[in-house]
């Protein structure tokens, strides 16, 4: 196993994240993240604070927090202090006499109790995320107004950030009043508006709530927003070793439908379906439907994507290609044959090997990352993909 900093840096770079982006998402100062990755423990705050930062950063990167904390203790040279106690001899006399044999163990027990109480205080202070409540809207709601006032309560020393999708519209560095209450007026767009309320406390811990607020704007018949219903994915859903399927239906007035920037053609009954590949992490899906008159409606969903295996998508485009794939040493079904342009295959396992006879017409994505074509036209190329 590599050094602690090497593991975190490699995972962050694998996710395509910069230190600045990671600092903004985790609300941990960039200089602390840089010190963790460089093993510069002298530049970090106390051990209790550092472990809290380390746990938050590990969860953000999809790593195991307990393993990284253990590695941090090992690298910094902080062994678990040995604890031993002198056995207490029974007092045979009826009267209590405070001798060194009695007083020393009592003082030791009091010291240990005080130390454990301090650790508990540190844990409850620095490990528990800040409290956050949103009273208005109380849950997913519908409004006829183009603006809405968000009301809630959190800890008094917190900083609040509110994001409204689509957009996003961001309202940052909001300070609550002395009792922790806050009110923020936000603009809405016709259709579904996804609102995220994020709280950062003084110790760097983050908590978040979300609401979906639908704005049904009053409009003339020729400007009436089209109907857009997104059935999949569910907001807040988790996808492991799989692409995200976006499906739903629109009414007949829709002339343009776009999913994350890619045009999608609905069927004659208005139903639609599209597959989107994402890298690991929290991802936002935006579906936009428009009419010929220019009326528009949008829906957004936020999902979590994770990979525990090598997930490979192979797409043949611009010509035919012979393909052979093996998954964990066994030949994949229906491979070792020629595929025509437009066909797509997916494979998942600890190790996936893809061999093509026309690399210029064979396009590959690995764990949601588009790697482009495998080579030049007519070239025989083999690629190996391993689980991360």
Measured by DSSP, the beta-strand proportion falls in 35-45%
Terminal Cα span: 14 Å
Query: Can you count the helices?
Result: 6
Number of strands: 25
Q: Which helices and strands occur, and which strands form pairs?
A:
Layout: H1 4-14, H2 19-26, H3 30-38, H4 47-61, H5 65-76, H6 100-126, E1 132-136, E2 141-143, E3 147-154, E4 159-165, E5 169-174, E6 181-187, E7 191-200, E8 206-215, E9 228-232, E10 238-240, E11 244-250, E12 254-259, E13 262-263, E14 271-276, E15 281-291, E16 296-306, E17 310-316, E18 321-327, E19 330-331, E20 337-339, E21 344-349, E22 351-356, E23 362-366, E24 369-373, E25 381-386
Provide the descriptors you would attach to this structure in a database record.
alpha+beta; 6 helices; 25 strands; 388 residues; 5-stranded mixed sheet; 21% helix
Folded structure, characterized:
This protein has 388 residues and is α+β, with helices and mostly antiparallel strands. Helix content is 21%, strand content 40%. The chain contains six helices and 25 strands. The chain has helices spanning 4-14, 19-26, 30-38, 47-61, 65-76, 100-126; strands at residues 132-136, 141-143, 147-154, 159-165, 169-174, 181-187, 191-200, 206-215, 228-232, 238-240, 244-250, 254-259, 262-263, 271-276, 281-291, 296-306, 310-316, 321-327, 330-331, 337-339, 344-349, 351-356, 362-366, 369-373, 381-386. α1 (4-14) crosses α3 and α4 packs across α5.
